[in-house]
Fold this protein.
Amino acid sequence: MNEPSSSQSLFDLPNAPKFERFTALPKFDGVPALVLDVPESIPALGYGSHQFFRYYGKFPSLVGREIISAFSDADMGVLDNYSGSGTTQVEAQIAGRDSYGIDINPLAVLASNVKTAYQDARKLDAAFDLVCRSAAAIAPYEIQATPSDRLRKWFSEESLQGLGRIRAAIDELEPGDEQDFLTVCFLAIVRRCSNAHDGEVRPHVKLEKKPRPPATAFREKYLDMVDGLRELDTMRPKSIKSKTVIGDNRTPKAYAELLTEPVGLVVSHPPYLNSFNYFNAFSLEIMWSEGMTNVWQGWTLRDVTGLEQKAHPATNGRLVESYYRSISEASAQAFEVLRPGGTLALVVGDATIHGRLEAVHRNVWDSLKTSGWRPEAVWFRTTHYGIGKYAYAHRADYHGEAEKKDAIMFLRKP
Ligand SMILES: C[S@@+](CC[C@H](N)C(=O)[O-])C[C@H]1O[C@@H](n2cnc3c(N)ncnc32)[C@H](O)[C@@H]1O
């Protein structure tokens, strides 16, 4: 491991305040242990393309940055096999590393690819103008093609019409980077144009909510994404490859279609036990993406929900067993694609089940130690904005529960 200095990391952002990001702890099971402190606010962590798509349970950008800084090789790729919305890939790109991602959620995969694509700003603006003009011209009756019946619970007639027009106009674009960018922009505004509570992970109707008008939300989101893209272009070198695919990380197939050579670092950030299942959390966006081939790429909702590593409810013993088994299987696949001496960075958090602590990090560590990995280091992370503070106190409440830990565990392939 390249030792991070105590007051500064290799990747400190320009003008970042200097503070002790790392502090040493007594050894953990014989390996060096540090605390990684991430006191930045969510907006401060949302530089570049990180803020394109709100993804539940993502880790702070600086976590990806510090892992890459300490454990990636200059000349080898980085893979995230639970890649979610692509935080690792964006950070790898900023660090000049090729990156790869696998996730079972097609929305996340599209977002990851859009966040790391090099866009042509002029073409993007032209596509955006075209979508805005076509959306305004589409007659309401043509929106019947959208799955509006199921959506009526969540959207007012006005929101349904507005979103339906934008969606229909995006469908008319040529497939390619601009269509993908605008699809992410569209899916990113779905929740705020709905009656669903913005602060909760799983959608619940909030009667007093005032949904955002779709045309305004779409325009604002577009401008915001373009700003992020401009910022990212100042941070990343040109032509750094990044590719993310839809796949089940427990099987060799997804890796085989993605990688042609070993990687130097694999980041794995499984869903947190007892938190939520991803397809439930994104049910509104999934309804609106139905039939979009750039999102689904030949997969069906049934395929992907069947392959998802379920995290909730952990009161079901069989689910807990299969949760741990999934992590072992995905780690075994990571082992196969790493170069000898390469690192697995496993980001896991503890859970409470019926008020009892489930020390997920310790259980996973103990199991990997006996599966051929060489234990290297552990970082425990703090995040001041409340990582792990899920919407429901009974599921996971980090406040006042000192023993529950968020850990990043580093293991090497011998
Ligand atoms: C905690 S999130 C990762 C978030 C990511 N680090 C980020 O910053 O956006 C866990 C991810 O695991 C994915 N996942 C669940 N089961 C999977 C499987 N069998 N194969 C691949 N990904 C899976 C979920 O879709 C979810 O995106």
Observations:
- The longest strand covers residues 338-349.
- Residues 55, 57-59, 82, 84-85, 87, 102-105, 108, 248-250, 269-271, 278, 307-309 surround S-adenosylmethionine (CB under 6 Å).
- The CA atoms of residues 31 and 377 lie 5 Å apart.
- Residues 121-231 form one domain.
